[in-house]
Amino acid sequence: MIAGFVSGLGRSVREFVVGVGFAARMFINMLGASLGLLRRPRLITDQIHFIGNYSLVIITVSGLFVGFVLGLQGYYTLNKYGSEQALGLLVALSLTRELGPVVTALLFAGRAGTSLTAEIGLMKAGEQLSAMEMMAVNPLQRVVAPRFWAGVIAMPVLAAIFSAVGVLGGYVVGVLLIGVDDGAFWSQMQGGVDVWNDIANGVLKSIVFGIAVTFVALFQGYEAQPTPEGVARATTRTVVIASLTVLGLDFLLTALMFS
């Protein structure tokens, strides 16, 4: 029994190490293949439209309701200490530092990430990637790299839209519905939010999340079993692994940025 447990544990560790090594090699090869995209930028712009534009609705609606909730909860908390005038600052810092990049990345993983995994997985199942290799076309350069850079570019833009819409949602609830002073809402926000320490760090987080989530989605699709069941399992793994990666990276980045 103990021997079987040790054997299974060793096999799992070996498979994990092999998977990490293959992912690192694929990432390096993809970066090398990305140089050829300078001659064909249309491949990236098309994918930015596919990834970013189709995720815009869920990002905007989610940001609005998150702003509503922040406005309500923030007012109830600050009102206990007579500091409800700082509601705008609380909403802005919560969104730009944490909720904007993190929630956007989680929604991106569920919407665009699964779409990328399913698309690449179905291309593999239909032997389209093998056909490209037979025609001397590098699938990493033609298929994977454009989608990777599109995800990296689209993530910060979507996070900025999420934060902006969330601030408007907090304004609607806090100022228009509850009655917080309009001038205090915006002046506290303007005086307390720092461009480099708050906004720039949030943008950096969203870029890191974009790299992680997009690569996880593409890797899972590229390595999926060429069967319907294999593509379905790869799509599920994309959501789980990408979500846990985002939360883990958020902790590390927050500790480094705001320690």
TrEMBL record:
Q: Does the keyword Nucleotide-binding apply?
A: no
Q: Which InterPro entries match?
A: ABC_MlaE_roteobac (IPR003453), MlaE_Permease (IPR053408), Permease_MalE (IPR030802)
Where is the major localization of this protein? membrane
Q: Describe its membrane topology.
A: Multi-pass membrane protein
Its GO CC terms are:
ATP-binding cassette (ABC) transporter complex
Task: Name the UniProt key words of this record, in alphabetical order.
Answer: Cell inner membrane, Cell membrane, Membrane, Transmembrane, Transmembrane helix, Transport
Transmembrane intervals: 16-38, 50-75, 87-109, 148-179, 199-219, 239-258
Keyword Zinc found: no
In alphabetical order, the GO MF annotations are: phospholipid transporter activity
Q: Which Pfam families does the record cross-reference, listed alphabetically? A: MlaE
| Localization per record | Cell inner membrane
Report the leader peptide range.
none
Protein role? Part of the ABC transporter complex MlaFEDB, which is involved in a phospholipid transport pathway that maintains lipid asymmetry in the outer membrane by retrograde trafficking of phospholipids from the outer membrane to the inner membrane. Probably responsible for the translocation of the substrate across the membrane.
Annotated PANTHER family: ABC TRANSPORTER PERMEASE PROTEIN-RELATED, PROTEIN TRIGALACTOSYLDIACYLGLYCEROL 1, CHLOROPLASTIC
Query: What interactions and quaternary structure are annotated?
Result: The complex is composed of two ATP-binding proteins (MlaF), two transmembrane proteins (MlaE), two cytoplasmic solute-binding proteins (MlaB) and six periplasmic solute-binding proteins (MlaD).
Which family does the record claim for this protein? Belongs to the MlaE permease family.
Name of the protein: Intermembrane phospholipid transport system permease protein MlaE
What lineage does the source organism belong to? Bacteria, Pseudomonadati, Pseudomonadota, Betaproteobacteria, Burkholderiales
